[in-house]
Write a structure and sequence with these properties.
This protein is mostly beta strands. The protein contains 1 helix and 34 strands.
Length: about 375
């Protein structure tokens, strides 16, 4: 989709496919790319990144990557949105200009085109254009990202004469120390709800995302939003691995434990993992406090409900977090009740391309599903059950 967006085409996912694909290898051309859904940065030499998840929070997300420097216009849309002018069924209007900007030291620009979305009046010149630009720079004095929303030219029926402007800045391993609008400081806000309720201000939303809004301004006036950036403080992290996490449709695997970052043992506040181990192993990297004794378990629960919950068998998994850096910790839904059995199939004469499999009444034997994704292939081998 142009030079700034790369979308992976995926087939064979979700119902009615009984064995939906959950991950895919993605080739990215040389350069810096950002996962549109997670803000994870990829620095590619022109290479393939393996096992990229296709499900995020148990919702299928088409793999989408934005190139560093991309400027993507957006609009506020929900169930009350009626048209592209931002009119809503409750009588209010959400017509703010939203620009998601991916920071890059290479200057980039984009021209936003708008018309009434309903008629062919644009053929007679009834449209507007707004130039957008970004520039990331590092000097001895500061690290800054400057986003410019230029003066709008032209008009059309229903076009706003003034509106708010929201910048969603994605900057790698960075957070803002201050944000200015045309040289004047914007107020810092401390939560998403405070940001949503304010007419102007900025907010470190986490996960490499910084939000800023200008307040309602004349569309014919240029706006320069300047972010002074600093590295995101790095604390310790833990890589959580949950083995044997076979799920049914609509289930996901979560981590819960004895610290707030793991929900204080509340299943509804657990942290969801990704089935990229590969499935049925689920993994995730989670920030944890320093030098704390942590106990935790893997659970399965529906994505859209708090119950029913399937807990990993006792005992709890336990580790002590480091002062800095990372640690890996593993849980297993099979628990300690795992034995190894040897399965022998006599008289298994096969033709070319055939193999012998074992199926049975437990997940380790495919729950009677004979498909190769679930059945266990045998050849004088031992299996964990």
């Amino acid at each position: 989709m142009g030079r700034d967006l790369l979308v992976g085409v995926v087939t064979g996912v979700g119902p009615p496919n009984p064995n939906p694909e959950t991950q895919r290898d993605i080739y990215l051309p040389a350069g810096a790319w950002v996962d549109y859904h997670t803000n994870q940065w990829f620095h590619s030499t022109g290479q393939t990144f393996t096992a990229q998840p296709e499900y995020i929070n148990n919702i299928f997300r088409l793999p989408t990557f934005a190139r560093a420097g991309a400027i993507i216009p957006k609009m506020y849309v929900d169930g009350n949105t009626m048209n592209i002018l931002g009119m809503r069924s409750d009588g209010s209007t959400h017509n703010e200009l939203i620009a998601r900007v991916y920071a890059s030291s290479t200057p980039s620009s984009f021209t936003l085109y708008e018309d009434d979305g309903q008629t062919v009046a644009y053929q007679g010149g009834a449209f507007s254009t707004t130039p957008l630009a970004q520039q990331f720079s590092i000097t001895a004095a500061a690290t800054t990202e400057t986003v410019t929303i230029g003066a709008t030219s032209g008009t059309y029926a229903g076009a706003p004469t003034s509106r708010n402007n929201v910048v969603e800045l994605v900057a790698e391993n960075a957070q803002a120390n201050s944000v200015t609008l045309n040289g004047a400081s914007l107020p810092q806000l401390t939560s998403q709800s405070a940001f949503d309720g304010a007419s102007s201000g900025w907010f470190n939303a986490g996960n490499d995302l910084i939000l800023a809004k200008t307040g309602s301004l004349d569309v014919t006036a240029a706006k320069t939003v300047a972010f002074t950036l600093a590295p995101t403080p790095l604390g310790p992290t833990a890589t959580f691995i949950c083995n044997n996490g076979t799920t049914t449709w609509g289930q996901s695997v979560y981590v819960v434990g004895n610290i707030p970052a793991l929900g204080n043992w509340a299943p509804a506040q657990g942290v969801e993992l990704n089935p990229n181990g590969p499935y049925p192993t689920w993994t995730g990297i989670i920030p944890v406090p320093s030098n704390v004794a942590i106990q935790w378990k893997c659970i399965k629960r529906p994505e859209n409900a708090d119950n029913p919950v399937v807990w990993q068998p006792d005992p709890n998994n336990a580790f002590t977090s480091p002062a800095s850096g990372g640690v890996t910790t593993t849980g297993d839904f099979a628990g300690s009740a795992v034995t190894t059995e040897q399965f022998i199939c006599d008289n298994g004469v096969t033709t070319w391309g055939q193999s012998v499999y074992v199926v049975g009444s437990i997940p380790g034997l495919g729950n009677w599903d004979p498909s190769p994704d679930y059945a266990q292939r045998v050849g004088g081998c031992s299996l964990n059950v």
